């Protein structure tokens, strides 16, 4: 763990603490499975972005990628920290609106926005942004601009848009999270006969404010070189737009995807590692080509909440297969963390109530779901596990709760936000009644 994490997850008197609270007591008070987030660490990530990016470079801005973890409480934190918010569905937009998040700081993404979603994003609150809608829409489909234009005219407003381009750059820890390659479902191809007619149409439309370009090349990225490669392709388009249309592009969003440490030799890089080279590259390119410097934006999600969250489970059956694996079964599994089954994701964990005990038992942590792929961690060393122990799996703050399901009719876990020695529940544990109330 880095210094920040070591200050959040500590061992005292042989037990794991999350900020100022004993993990086993959190499990006792709120039940398990339980997602626990450190508010202190989340806010420190926002502070780091301000210090090393938005306060450092004039015009720079940052948005939190809500898909990583989004609840009304998280929306309020993002708002208080002064960041933009990215949403990708009517449900995420509704969550933001329910929290009172300012519509002018909402960006609406998605590769297949429905007409109804665009209608809500543009016309929410009868065209009054303060009561709904989204300040920006990131165009991802070839026919999307026509729909946006017609809806903006319908509601008597100008809609700000960015074009998500496919920069033909491959990056990310797994094929399923690589989103910038040429053959991607995301983004507008940068082929000349496709991209420039759309740009011209956006510039000429009285109902569209063309803000610029956006790209997102992947997730769990630890090197800055792919961002520079993608930025170079985007800047070449910006240069060509000025030549063809005499139009100065005001913004370029370079996405997120900055990696965090889950296990092994992975090491989280500071935001400055990515942003300083990007800003230097953009500045030099614009100076060399006589371009006005666009405002640069980023969209981190995982790197803000990923390692700020952990999941607590109660150990149930412990089974030693003769001559084989020792299984430690927990009261959750791939219904609250699908990433190991989906991506082969790896995690680290500790038995919270035995955190001071030397981990000598080699085990595989498995869930209670019906599926042999329901394994959270394979071949990890822990203290001797017993039924009733509390297992803490680290770095589950991104895409755990967001991707949780009711497979096997398991209710979704509760979520707790910890700050110092205070814990506040921000998502109630789903009841069996609530889980089945829509079923007829």
* Helical fraction: 25-40%
Number of domains: 2
Give the overall silhouette. Answer: elongated
CATH superfamily of the largest domain: Alanine racemase
CATH third-tier fold name of the largest domain: TIM Barrel
Beta-strand segment tally: 21
Per CATH, the class of the largest domain reads Alpha Beta
Largest sheet: 9 strands, mixed
- How far apart lie the N and C ends? 48 Å
Helix count, DSSP H or I runs of 4 or more residues: 13
Oligomer: single chain
Q: What features would you describe in this structure?
A:
With 440 residues, this protein is of the alpha/beta class. Strands 4, 14, 15, 16, 17, 18, 19, 20 and 21 form a nine-stranded mixed sheet that branches. It starts with a helix and ends with a helix. It has two domains: 3-31 and 309-436, Lyase, Ornithine Decarboxylase, Chain A, domain 1 (Beta Barrel); 39-305, Alanine racemase (TIM Barrel). The model is unreliable at 125-131 and 173-181 (pLDDT under 50). The longest helix is centred in the middle third of the chain and has 21 residues, at 225-245. 31% of the residues lie in helices and 24% in strands. It contains 13 helices and 21 strands. A hairpin with a 2-residue loop joins strand 1 and strand 2.
Overview in brief:
The chain has helices spanning 3-8, 23-30, 39-54, 72-80, 90-98, 115-123, 144-154, 192-204, 225-245, 271-289, 302-305, 339-343, 432-436, and strands at residues 9-12, 15-18, 21-22, 34-38, 61-65, 84-87, 106-108, 136-139, 159-166, 188-189, 208-214, 251-253, 295-298, 309-320, 326-330, 349-351, 361-366, 375-382, 390-394, 414-419, 422-427. It is of the alpha/beta class and 440 residues long. It folds into 2 domains: 3-31 and 309-436, Lyase, Ornithine Decarboxylase, Chain A, domain 1; 39-305, Alanine racemase (TIM Barrel, Alpha-Beta Barrel), CATH 3.20.20.10.
